[in-house]
Amino acid sequence: MAYEDQYQQSKYDTLLFDVDDTLYPLSTGFSNECAKNIQEYMVQKLGIQQNKVFQLNQELYKNYGTSMAGLKAIGYDFDNDEYHSFVHGRLPYGKLKPDHVLRNLLLSMPLRKVIFSNADNAHVSKTLRKLGLEDCFERIICFETLNPNDKTSCRFDDKNDVQFGSENFDNPCQSDIGSILPKTPILCKPFEDAFEQAFKLANINPQTTIFFDDSIRNIQKGKQLGLTTVLVGKSNRISGADYVLESIHNIKEALPELWEENDKKSETMKYTGNVAFGTSVTA
Ligand SMILES: [Mg+2]
Q1: What is the CA(172)–ligand 1 centre distance, in A?
Q2: Can you tell me the distance from the alpha carbon of 29 to that of 65, in angstroms, rounded to the nearest whole number?
Q3: How many Cα atoms sit within 13 Å of 268 on the Cβ side?
Q4: Ligand 1 centre from 67 Cα, in Å?
Q5: Domain 14-147+184-271: what homologous superfamily?
Q6: Who surrounds ion ligand 1 at CB < 5 A?
Q7: Ligand 1 centroid to 83 CA: how many Å?
Q8: Which superkingdom is the protein from (predicted)?
C-alpha cells in the first residue's frame, strides 16, 4: 500500500452539534417545559386565547422551524430578549448535570466542534455550562449569531386580525417561493439560509462535516446540503440520516473511524513534522 493511501487525510474535519435534546436526553423534560412556557407567553404577553395556543404553537413550529419565527411571521411584534428569557430563562436548569462521559468523548476527538442551535446565547451558554461542556466547542452559532439585527419590519399592522389556519395571510412579506404562508424575518434551522449562513460564519465545508441533531427535518435539510448526518435520540432509521444514535454517548460505537482516523493523522503529523524539520536543516 502506498504511503499516501495508508495515511490519507481524515474525511472529516468538523463536527456540528445542535444543543437541545441532542447534547442531553429528551427525558430531561426541557422540551415540554419550553412548549409550556411558549404557550404561556402567547396568552400572557400576546393576548392569544388560551384554547388556541396549543394548536397554533404546533402549527407555527411545524411551518417555521421555531414558534418564535412563526409568531413573527404572522405579525406579532415582541422583544426577542424578553421572549427568550420568558421561554428559556425559566427552565429548571438544575436538572442538567455535568456529563463527564460526553465531555471525555468530545475532548478525545481533535476535530473542530461547533454548536449550531436555534436557541438564544444565554440558554446555549448556560446549558453547556451545566453539562460541563462549555470549553469543548470552538464556536457557538445561535439565535443572535443568525439574527444580529432586529429585523421585525415584516408584520401586520393590526395583529388582532390574524387568523392562523384561515389562509388569510395578507402579509406584505409574502414568501417568493409561492407559498401561502408569510415569510418570517427570523433565520433558523431547518431553512437553507440558516445552514448557509452557519457554514459561512464558521468556515464549514459540509462535505467534511458531521452534523448531529435530534430533529428529523434539520437532519434531512443538512443531508440535502451535503453534510454527513447523525440523528440523535431516536432508534429508527430515517431517510436523510446517515447514522442514528439513541444517545449522543454512542458516538464512538457508531463512528469509531473518527478516533481511528485521528490516530493515523497523529502518525502522519509526526512523520510530516520530521520531514519538514529535516528539510529546513539541509536547506
Ligand atoms: Mg434540538
Answers
A1: 31
A2: 20
A3: 14
A4: 13
A5: HAD superfamily/HAD-like (3.40.50.1000)
A6: 18, 20-21, 214
A7: 18
A8: Eukaryota
pLDDT above 70 coverage of the chain, percent: 77
pLDDT of residue 175: 40
Predicted pLDDT of residue 276: 31
- DSSP of 10-46, one letter per residue? PS--EEEE--TTTTS-GGG-HHHHHHHHHHHHHHHTT
β-pairing verdict for 228-232 and 243-245: parallel
pLDDT in tens, 224-282: 999 999 999 999 999 999 999 999 999 999 999 888 755 665 555 554 433 333 222 22
CB contact set of 38 (below 8 Å; sequence gap of 6+): 57, 67, 68, 87
Task: Please tell me the distance between residue 88's alpha carbon and the centre of ligand 1 in angstroms.
Answer: 14
Domain ranges of the chain: 14-147+184-271
CA of 167 to the centre of ligand 1 (A): 29
Weakest-pLDDT range from 1-15, 66-80, 176-190 = 1-15
| CA separation for the pair 141, 146 (Å, rounded) | 7
Ligand 1 centroid – CA 259 distance (Å): 25
Q: Measured in angstroms, how far is the CA atom of residue 230 from the centroid of ligand 1?
A: 12
Using the mean position of ligand 1's atoms as its centre, give its distance from the Cα of residue 279 in Å: 49
The amino acid at residue 230 is V
Residue 124 has pLDDT above 80, yes or no: yes
Length, in residues, of the chain: 283
Tell me how far the alpha carbon of residue 124 lies from the centroid of ligand 1, in angstroms.
Answer: 11
